[in-house]
């Protein structure tokens, strides 16, 4: 069992309170993604789980064991960093085996475990190279290899793909998801990229200003966001959030509707608007519309729909896909 | 043909180079000349290449003793400065502790303290410690005065090391001290070579401190030994120049060995690597 339990954790740097009071359960064997905008405290939270930052108050348990004040190496965790943090003067083999060497593991066992990790990550031919002789993707694999050999209870990833180019990022995303199934371990992954969160997570934790906004499965967050922040953060293009008379008519402060949940017609509809800009993505077309009553809206339609900037169109939000966020924090769907 | 701008640049570079090369050549060539010829033509080529003075000096056991003393003192100074300076700077760069900024600035005050002004108290301290007339009498004050400068350079270099490297090592089970030996030092070759060279050359050429601390001729460094060829009324300049030329070699060899690291040390961290 490697459930991570965070209870009433508070973190301050001097007079700045980064995380006021946070509690969270990361289930055993889950792939949990902490996501939120820059400065929301997600990396700080991960570093507190790792033991790289002291908690100001509260407690952290891993697999039922209180590790609040334990050293990072005594927590049964392994961490992969954004900048890879490989040891530049060591070979790939030495990098991967370094933690085991420090733990005084017998050399034969170190070799066996390094070889096993190298096989999983296809690093075999690179074992005698130094980090500077590797590409970005290979470096990140080595960093992952370094975490695998320690056989940790929990893997921690701090934006590990953000230094890679788009194509490699997609490839590594798939590899990480496969690795999770193969290792069957608890993984906590920090990112600011909601696409990574949606595609990899079993559980997404959305944070803002050190406060958890919502926790749930990716499609639950997509279909039933608790507040406008979550609604706007999950989904690409982001949800249209409309305030003013249109929301007030429905008894809400904010009305939310996703771009893909708006039907478009040239003749009739609930809201009239003029196309400002159209992006043809092939499978889809994303249109940016200036609507008379609703303000700026984004609409996503199938790629075969012909649209041009300057055209007038009518839009109708699909029934059952409207999110109504009230002043008191309650939310209803219509 | 060179443009005016290029010609001006070349003339300027030749001028600057000559400021270094001419005295060096004059010193080496002076060792081949007679004293009379030195007076008439201090910079020209010797009329006759007389190897006598170089031969005498290189064949003199006392010369090698001077050289060995200088070498021993310089190496001891380098090793102690590197060990103490790097450990101290590491604490300032990596460990957060109360009063570190004040302590660091206090240490830097040493940079502004003129060596000559401390000669008297230094002499008394060295005498009281019972290390007068020993290499330690020169080494320890040299280390003391070299620390401020070396700590400043080491700290700047160490502070540029990526924090995530330390984080990764901590997760792997490394503490501060292990990180220092296993990561900080191996990754600091450029700054180690740079500071080692500066300290070595400074110690190798030091005259004032050995003059005050060393009274026994057996313990003299080469800078004191060079005075052997000066009498009360006359000086054997050709022998002195041959002597000085022969002592240049170790410092030059040390510099050449460390040169490629020195350049990296001086420019390291200037751009994202």
From TrEMBL, chain A:
PROSITE patterns: ABC_TRANSPORTER_1, ABC_TRANSPORTER_2. GO terms for cellular component: ATP-binding cassette (ABC) transporter complex, substrate-binding subunit-containing; maltose transport complex. Keywords: ATP-binding, Nucleotide-binding, Transport. It comes from the Bacteria. Residues 4-234 form the ABC transporter domain. InterPro entries: AAA+_ATPase, ABC_transporter-like_ATP-bd, ABC_transporter-like_CS, ABC_transpr_MalK-like, ABC_transpr_MalK/UgpC-like, Mo/tungstate-bd_C_term_dom, NA-bd_OB-fold, P-loop_NTPase. GO terms for molecular function: ABC-type maltose transporter activity; ATP binding; ATP hydrolysis activity. Gene3D superfamilies: 2.40.50.100, Nucleic acid-binding proteins, P-loop containing nucleotide triphosphate hydrolases. NCBIfam families: PRK11650.1 (NF008653). Belongs to the ABC transporter superfamily. This is Glycerol-3-phosphate ABC transporter ATPase. It comes from Actibacterium mucosum KCTC 23349.
TrEMBL record, chain B:
GO terms for cellular component: plasma membrane. It is found in: Cell membrane. The keyword Nucleus does not apply. The chain crosses the membrane at residues 12-32, 71-92, 104-124, 136-158, 179-201, 240-258. Keywords: ATP-binding, Cell membrane, Membrane, Nucleotide-binding, Transmembrane, Transmembrane helix, Transport. Residues 67-258 form the ABC transmembrane type-1 domain. It is a multi-pass membrane protein. Its main location: membrane. InterPro entries: MetI-like (IPR000515), MetI-like_sf (IPR035906). Belongs to the binding-protein-dependent transport system permease family. This is Thiamine ABC transporter ATP-binding protein. It comes from Actibacterium mucosum KCTC 23349.
């Amino acid at each position: 069992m490697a459930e991570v339990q965070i209870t009433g954790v508070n973190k301050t740097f001097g007079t700045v309170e980064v995380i006021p009071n946070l509690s969270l359960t990361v289930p055993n064997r889950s792939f949990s993604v902490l996501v939120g905008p820059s400065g929301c405290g997600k990396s700080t939270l991960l570093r507190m789980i790792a033991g790289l930052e002291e908690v100001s108050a509260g407690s952290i348990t891993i697999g039922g064991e209180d590790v609040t004040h334990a050293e990072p190496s005594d927590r049964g965790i392994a961490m992969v960093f954004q900048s890879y943090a490989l040891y530049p003067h060591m070979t790939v083999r030495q990098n991967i085996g370094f933690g085991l060497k420090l733990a005084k593991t017998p050399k034969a066992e170190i070799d066996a475990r390094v070889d096993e990790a190298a096989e999983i990550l296809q690093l075999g031919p690179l074992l005698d190279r130094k980090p500077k002789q590797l590409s970005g993707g290979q470096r990140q694999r080595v960093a992952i290899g370094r975490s695998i050999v320690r056989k940790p209870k929990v893997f921690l990833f701090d934006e590990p793909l953000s230094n890679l180019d788009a194509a490699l990022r997609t490839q590594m995303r798939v590899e990480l998801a496969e690795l999770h199934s193969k290792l069957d371990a608890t993984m906590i992954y920090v990112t600011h990229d909601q696409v990574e969160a949606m595609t990899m997570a079993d559980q997404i934790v959305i944070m803002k200003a050190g406060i958890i906004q919502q926790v749930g499965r990716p499609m639950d967050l997509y279909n039933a966001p608790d507040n406008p922040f979550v609604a706007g953060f999950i989904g690409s293009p982001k949800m249209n959030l409309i305030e003013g008379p249109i929301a007030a008519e429905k008894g809400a402060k904010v009305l939310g509707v996703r771009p893909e949940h708006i039907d478009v017609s040239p003749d009739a509809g609930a809201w009239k608007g003029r196309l400002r800009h159209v992006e043809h993505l092939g499978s889809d077309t994303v249109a940016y519309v200036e609507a008379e009553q609703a303000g700026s809206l984004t609409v996503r339609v199938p790629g075969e729909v012909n649209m041009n900037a300057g055209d007038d169109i009518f839009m109708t939000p699909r029934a059952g896909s409207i999110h109504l966020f009230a002043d008191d924090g309650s939310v209803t769907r219509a | 043909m060179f443009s005016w701008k290029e010609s001006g640049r070349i003339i300027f570079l030749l001028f600057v180079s000559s400021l270094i090369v001419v005295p060096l050549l004059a010193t080496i060539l002076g060792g081949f000349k007679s004293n009379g010829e030195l007076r008439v033509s201090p910079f020209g080529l010797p009329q006759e290449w007389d190897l006598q003075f170089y031969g005498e000096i290189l064949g003199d056991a006392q010369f090698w003793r001077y050289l060995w003393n200088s070498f021993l003192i310089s190496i001891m100074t380098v090793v102690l400065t590197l060990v103490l300076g790097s450990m101290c700077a590491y604490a300032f760069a990596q460990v957060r502790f109360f009063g570190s900024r004040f302590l660091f600035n206090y240490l830097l005050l040493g940079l502004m303290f003129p060596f000559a002004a401390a000669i008297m108290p230094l002499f008394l301290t060295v005498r009281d410690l019972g290390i007068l007339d020993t290499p330690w009498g020169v080494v320890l004050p040299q280390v003391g005065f070299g620390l401020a400068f070396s700590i400043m350079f080491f700290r700047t270099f160490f502070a540029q090391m990526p924090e995530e490297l330390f984080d990764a090592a901590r997760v792997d089970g490394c503490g501060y001290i292990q990180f220092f030996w296993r990561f900080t030092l191996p990754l600091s070759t450029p700054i180690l070579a740079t500071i080692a060279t500066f300290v070595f050359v400074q110690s190798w050429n030091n005259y004032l401190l050995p003059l005050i601390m060393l009274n026994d001729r057996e313990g003299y460094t080469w800078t004191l030994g060079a005075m052997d060829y000066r009498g009360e009324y006359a000086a054997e300049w050709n022998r002195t120049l041959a002597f000085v030329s022969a002592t240049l070699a170790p410092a030059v060899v040390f510099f050449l060995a460390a040169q490629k690291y020195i350049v990296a040390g001086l420019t390291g961290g200037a751009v994202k690597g």
